[in-house]
Amino acid sequence: MLGAQALQCRGLLLPGARPGLAASRRGSSSRDKDRSVSVSGSVPMPAGGKGSRTNCSQATPQKVPNRLINEKSPYLQQHAYNPVDWYPWGQEAFDKARKENKPIFLSVGYSTCHWCHMMEEESFQNEEIGRLLNEDFVSVKVDREERPDVDKVYMTFVQATSNGGGWPMNVWLTPNLQPFVGGTYFPPEDGLTRVGFHTVLQRIREQWKQNKNTLLENSQRVTTALLARSEISMGDRQLPPSAATMNSRCFQQLDEGYDEEYGGFAEAPKFPTPVILSFLFSYWLSHRLTQDGSRAQQMALHTLKMMANGGIRDHVGQGFHRYSTDRQWHVPHFEKMLYDQAQLAVAYSQAFQISGDEFYSDVAKGILQYVTRNLSHRSGGFYSAEDADSPPERGIRPKEGAFYVWTVKEVQQLLPEPVPGATEPLTSGQLLMKHYGLTEAGNISSNQDPKGELHGQNVLTVRYSLELTAARFGLDVDAVRTLLNTGLEKLFQARKHRPKPHLDSKMLAAWNGLMVSGYAVTGAVLGLERLINYAINCAKFLKRHMFDVASGRLMRTCYAGSGGTVEHSNPPCWGFLEDYAFVVRGLLDLYEATQESAWLEWALRLQDTQDRLFWDSQGGGYFCSEAELGAGLPLRLKDDQDGAEPSANSVSAHNLLRLHGFTGHKDWMDKCVCLLIAFSERMRRVPVALPEMVRALSAHQQTLKQIVICGDPQAKDTKALLQCVHSIYIPNKVLILADGDPSSFLSRQLPFLSTLRRLEDRATAYIYGSQVCSLPVTEPCELRKLLHQ
């Protein structure tokens, strides 16, 4: 009923218009897709479909920029030379719509989105479409990464009325910002079974003139229904659900959808979804003596190994692409997102803690090597993403994946050296091509390349173990490893000469917070001080460039300026819930990695600000945006899905538990309980949609361990005990250093710390859990035994 009200609009859509594809609950939610799924008659195409385009919105002497030329967002600037009279999201556009009584055309995307590029080239550069938009609509362009609140509100509408979603997202609004029709990618003109963007604009124009009152009434009904559907509140519930029940149901749902052969939890497209892997590791730890526990560990480790061997990982330059278009993790959608790198670095570090297999630690180090090299700003912050598309050669139209794929001829020319000791004539190039599955015809199937742009091209994907490749040619395993690494380095050097993908140089507080965690956790687990230093520098960057001391508020965005400077929009874009939640998590991880209490103190201050700006004192949980910032939007939402990024409410639940463990402040424990109660109905209904929150529920009901190390921070015995803790997978803990100073920050928060003593003047560990304290120990081996109990 809701979809019919919103979409039919008295004959707006052509017969046969096809609805969007349903969004999977297992990671491929609307916020994970930039595909051509559409409500209003776009053409369904393969995820990550390959389409050529001209360079986006290049300025020529004949073109006059629109007002987006003054915006900082790389995505908005890509549209600055369109013939469309674009407005950024703001009061100027809303006032114009009300004054001229025109509907608002809202178009949302982001700068590394392939289908956003396609629509910009095909429709927004089109003079006739530009004329239609300028005469009959007020056109507003939004970068979803700058304004996740706007994106989420209208994506909720698109999903509710179409069973699908994605980017670009295009929604028509009343002057009061209520949606009445929406979709995703539209081709410019009609096809046999599709409605083109030109036709859609004409029909909406006519309906606005002839049936405006009906549109307004339908819009109001849809908004009212969405308000009811999206409400998340404690209601009359007194307690959160049983952690044991939610854990079991979440595991069973994941087990049912697991791909036994290739790992992962869907047919295609397949997303990394680190939140699921994190849940499985936690489930294994609490069920490790059971068959289900072993199964959970196997599912997570196998998935991580298959991903790392697949084409979704960039074997030449490291880092992971956004998702795989097939179940084998072979052909990716080639963009690289900062949030994926941050979370996957942690996931692979945890896999190393659990398995002891250096394969996983090497992958984690490779991810961070890529981020350091390609996504870092000199100030310590990190850029958002690299595009999927780039020109194969200078002056040629960009194609998806062009920077990353190889022909057999290219590899043979780069690696012609004979391999000594092989049982048959063999060059370094032939060895690499055998191991990584390169063929003369190319290893990308035609159904993944509908336009034939990647014919003869190959994506590197590990086809054999080192042992099998070595045995095939009668070589030593170490020799094969060296030859392959040397070959990859030569490909990397050759790739430097190709035109590079577009870099989104926007820096987001939330994703930088995730990156603090990525470097801090990996550095602590592997004992690599240089990685921890990157986390420190990123935290300093956040405090220097993205924190307003006077108000205690975070800013959402800043941008790379000329000469290595950092620039801000004016007025600044203030932070959303995810900015606070992810930065607080990063600071807590950084404190545990460094034992520098200044990071913990800042985390407490940010949590206080988060509580003041976002907490729902009546219903429990946190709203995604400040009430003032989202004024005028028809909905104020609470994020209720752990997808490509964890829900900020899920992360906040963990943060509140940890902050209570560090400080003993009861208010934070009470807030955590209220939050879990508010989301309990969602967890009961679809626990697999909130695996990170189910983890928090378990941590709450099992209670966190407080691990206290008494000692001199610089002493070897103190560092040995700390490293022992870091080497073991213990997700539900707080790690505290008590240096014996009763006036220290932590001693003031937890007075019992001042009563703890070192045994025989040696660094000493105490473990508190479930109101019981362990006997003190001084040897890492003794501590390891206690932590494994």
UniProtKB/TrEMBL annotation:
Compartments it resides in: Secreted
Stretches for region Disordered: 20-61
Boundaries of every Spermatogenesis-associated protein 20-like TRX domain copy: 65-226
UniProt biased composition (Polar residues): 52-61
InterPro entries the UniProt entry points to: 6-hairpin_glycosidase_sf, 6hp_glycosidase-like_sf, Ssp411, Ssp411-like_TRX, Thioredoxin-like_sf
CDD domains: SSP411
GO cellular component: extracellular region
Gene Ontology biological process terms from the UniProt entry: carbohydrate metabolic process; cell differentiation; spermatogenesis
Keywords recorded for this protein, A-Z: Developmental protein, Differentiation, Secreted, Spermatogenesis
Classification via Pfam families: Thioredox_DsbH (PF03190)
Job of this protein: May play a role in fertility regulation.
Full protein name: Spermatogenesis-associated protein 20
Organism in which the protein naturally occurs: Equus asinus
